Amino acid sequence: MVKKVTINDIAKLANTSKTTVSFYLNQKYDRMSLDTRRRIEKVIRETNYVPSILARSLNDKQTKLVGILIGDITNTFSNLLVKGAESIAKKRGYQMIMGNSNYSQEDESKYIDSMLRLDVDGFIIQPTSHFRKYTSIMEENGKKLVFFDSQLYEYRNSWVKTNNYDAVYDAMQVCYEEKGYRKFLMITADPNRLSTRIERAQGFVDSVEDLKMPYEQLIIDDHNPSMDEMKSFLQSHTNDLTPTLVFVPNCWALPIVFTAMKELKLKIPHVGLMGFDNIEWSDFSSPTVTTIVQPAFREGQEAMNLLIDQIEGTDLTTNQRILDCQIHWKESTY
Fold first, then answer.
1. pLDDT for residue 225
2. How far apart are CA 107 and CA 102, in angstroms?
C-alpha cells in the first residue's frame, strides 16, 4: 500500500514548517517569501499531494464541510434535493458528506456520530421522530442545523419543507368537486414515523371528513408491504358503482399499489389513483398516474443556503420556509 503523503512530509521536503505549509494551503501568502512558495508548490506537484479538508482548516475555525442525512436516497425526490443542495454548496465553497438513514433511528445515530467526529460545520437532516435528543447535542457542539422535508415542532428549529397538509387537503377537495369521486381510500406507511407523513395523512382525513365522504385507510409495512393485503383491501372497498379515489402518500409505495390495482383489473380512472412525487415512474406508466409534486431541487437549494447563512452568521431572514407543491393531473384520475 502506498504511504499517504501528509502535511508534515510536505514541510520536511520543502524545508519549512508545518504552519507555513498550512498558510500556503489556505492561500495566506502575505508573510511568505516567493522562494518558500515555489519550494512548497514544487513538492506538492511532485508528490501529488491532495490536502484534506480538515488539514486545510487548521488555521480556520470552519471545515467548510457539511453533513446531509437523507431518509431514503433511492427515490428521485431525494436525488433532486441532494443535487439542489450540492449546487449551492459548490457555489459557496463548501463540500458535503451524505448518509442514508433508511428512516432507522440506529442508522441515524451512527451517521450523526460519524459526522460529528469529522467536525462538520453543520447538518441538513430529514429527521426521524426520535431525532429530538440530538438537537441539544448539536447546540452544545456549536453545530448549525436545518431540517428538510420534515420538521420537529419547536419554534426555534430551522427547516425547509413543502405545504404537505394543504396540498393533500386541496387535492381531495378537487377530486370531489371537479373529478366526481365519492369514496376515498388511503394506503400509507406508518404515518407516525415522520412529520411529513403525519401532515399528508391528516390532510387526507380532514379533507374527506369535511366533505362528509366515506373513507378507509390501510397502513402497510415500510420494508415488506403485503401485496395480498393491498389487493384484499382494494377489492373490499371498490365497486363498479361508486367512483373511488385511492391516495398513496409514499412515493415508493405508489408503483406497488398501481400493480395491485392492475392485477385486480380495477377500472382506472373510475377507481382513481393519486400519489406523491415519483414522477420518473408516474409520467411513463400506463396509464400515467396523477401525483402531487414537491419542488425538490429548490428545497435542497433553500436548505443549503439557510445552513451556510447560519454558519457564516449572515442569516438575516426567516429560518423557516414552506414551499408550494403542484398537482400533475394524469390519466389515473378523471
1. 94
2. 7
97-149 pLDDT, tens digit each: 999 998 888 898 899 888 988 889 999 998 876 777 777 777 777 889 899 87
- CB-facing half-sphere around the CA of 269: CA atoms within 13 A: 18
Grid cell for residue 268 = 382506472
Residue 58 pLDDT exceeds 50: no
| Cell reading at 235 | 377489492
Neighbouring CB atoms inside 10 A of 318's CB total 8
Q: Are 148 and 303 in contact (CB under 8 A)?
A: yes
Calpha distance 327→291 (Å, rounded) = 6
CB 151 within 8 A of CB 138: no
Domains identified in the chain and CATH numbers: 7-51 (no CATH), 65-162+296-324 (3.40.50.2300), 164-294 (3.40.50.2300)
Contact yes or no for 103/71 (Cβ under 8 A): yes
Proportion of the chain above pLDDT 90, given as a percent: 63
- Contact indicator for 222, 248 with CB cutoff of 8 Å: no
Cβ atoms of 266 and 239 closer than 8 Å: no
Does the predicted model carry a pTM greater than 0.90? no
Closest CA to 292 of 144, 127, 175: 175
Q: Beta partners for 184?
A: 215, 245
- The larger pLDDT score, comparing residue 317 to residue 258, is at 258
